[in-house]
Design goal:
Number of helices: 4
Largest sheet: 4 strands, antiparallel
CATH class: Alpha Beta
Strand content: 15-25%
CATH topology: Beta-lactamase Inhibitory Protein, Chain:B, domain 1
Order of helices and strands: HHHEEEEH
Radius of gyration: 23 Å
Number of strands: 4
Strand order of the largest sheet: 1-2-3-4
CATH architecture: 2-Layer Sandwich
């Protein structure tokens, strides 16, 4: 009887310990999350950013108004990583991160417009 009771307690306890071990050993999985975005620092290379956010991204074309492109046109690149809860836009200057921005997707578009409008309440 006691052996069954011990087995009944040991199986869930072992499962909880294994789950805790996995969380401790693999805390930062690559992917587009706010916590991974916060790990990015200035002067990181593109390969370092890819190791944190993943290799699936798209390049955003840089548009300008005027008759000629700005100076240093050829060295500035902007890339976007899309995640389930937000987008990370990263700007590079000769392979080094110079600017980053997070766009939260959990906010509804109508709320974004409402927050943008002047407060008439």
């Amino acid at each position: 009887m006691w052996k069954r009771f011990l087995w009944f307690l040991m199986i869930p306890a072992t499962a909880v310990c294994l789950i805790a071990l996995v969380i401790v050993l693999f805390p930062n999985q690559p992917g587009v999350t706010k916590s991974n975005f916060n790990r990015l620092a200035d002067d990181m290379t593109k390969s370092e950013v890819e190791s944190i956010l993943g290799k699936k991204y798209r390049e955003i074309p840089i548009l300008w108004g005027g008759s000629k492109p700005p100076e240093r046109w050829d060295v500035k690149k902007i890339y976007s990583w899309r995640g389930a809860k937000g987008d990370a836009c990263i700007e590079f200057d000769t392979e080094r991160l110079i600017r980053k921005s997070w766009h939260d997707l959990s906010v509804r578009p109508i709320d974004r417009v409402w927050n943008w409008l002047p407060r008439f309440r």
